[in-house]
Design goal:
- The protein is an alpha+beta fold.
- It has one domain: Dihydrodipicolinate Reductase, domain 2, CATH 3.30.360.
- 19% of the residues lie in helices and 30% in strands.
- A 7-stranded mixed β-sheet has the order 6-7-3-8-11-10-9.
- A hairpin with a 2-residue loop joins strand 12 (200-205) and strand 13 (208-213).
């Protein structure tokens, strides 16, 4: 079984007989941190603060419909959030370990694992992720340098958009893709901040189509004539 983020593991994925899809936050966090791994001031950790739509919390069993069939309802709803956001799993989230483990493969010395601090929250919109990276730097970089590193890493990737300004919901609404921007460096030059917006990521791997719905934790692995059976 091969687990990987496709954008920096294509060769190994093509040679694999079985593949598995990374989690939604884990995918976004890895793409967010990967261009800056060599500039991380270790042993400090990069921190990702993530906010996702409430559909990402999943569903629970509801009352039967008039025909007696079972139904599901959102585990979290805009009403239960009261118009606010709700932090959860503030330490040891599974995606924290997931992202750190696989980002470690990008290190010069992968024997010394990279750790990621991940702080998720759920928001009253339906789907989509907003993630902000704060990372201590081992050397001085400018905001222009940061943007150039992402442009170099993801050049030619049709599903990735790189912009100077902070991404907004309108940048990803009803679209497939990952939009990164808002590149900033602290006045001391020792801390980088980058913002990403994600709605839906579609990656084509040889003959397979993997569709990962960010915020709904759905996964489809299918051939050219797919049966759409998304788990919630």
């Amino acid at each position: 079984m091969r687990y990987s983020v496709e954008l920096y593991s294509r060769a190994s994925i093509r040679a694999s007989k079985r593949i598995s899809n990374p989690g939604c936050y884990a995918t976004s966090s890895q793409l967010l941190i990967a261009p800056l791994v060599k500039y991380l001031n270790r042993p400090a950790w990069p921190t990702v603060f993530g906010i996702s739509g409430y559909s990402g919390a999943g569903t629970v069993t509801g009352t039967n419909d008039p025909d007696g069939r079972p139904t599901t309802v959102p585990k979290v709803s805009p009403a239960s959030l009261g118009g606010s956001i709700r932090p959860y799993a503030l330490t040891d989230h599974i995606h924290e370990r997931e992202a750190g483990r696989h980002l470690s493969n990008l290190l010069v010395e992968p024997s010394s694992p990279l750790k990621v601090a991940f702080i998720p929250s759920v928001a009253p919109w339906f789907s989509g992720i907003l993630s902000t990276l704060s990372m201590p730097l081992s050397e001085r970089l400018s905001a222009k340098d940061l943007k150039a590193l992402y442009e170099e890493k993801y050049e030619g990737e049709k599903l990735i958009t790189i912009k100077r300004d902070v991404p907004s919901l309108q940048d990803v609404e009803n679209k497939h893709g990952w939009t990164v921007g808002g590149f900033q460096v602290h006045s001391d030059g020792d801390r980088a901040v980058v913002v990403v917006r994600v709605l839906l990521v579609v990656l084509l791997l040889s003959e397979l189509l993997i569709l990962m719905t960010v915020g709904r934790a759905g996964l489809i692995i299918c051939s050219r004539a797919p049966r759409r059976n998304v788990s919630k």
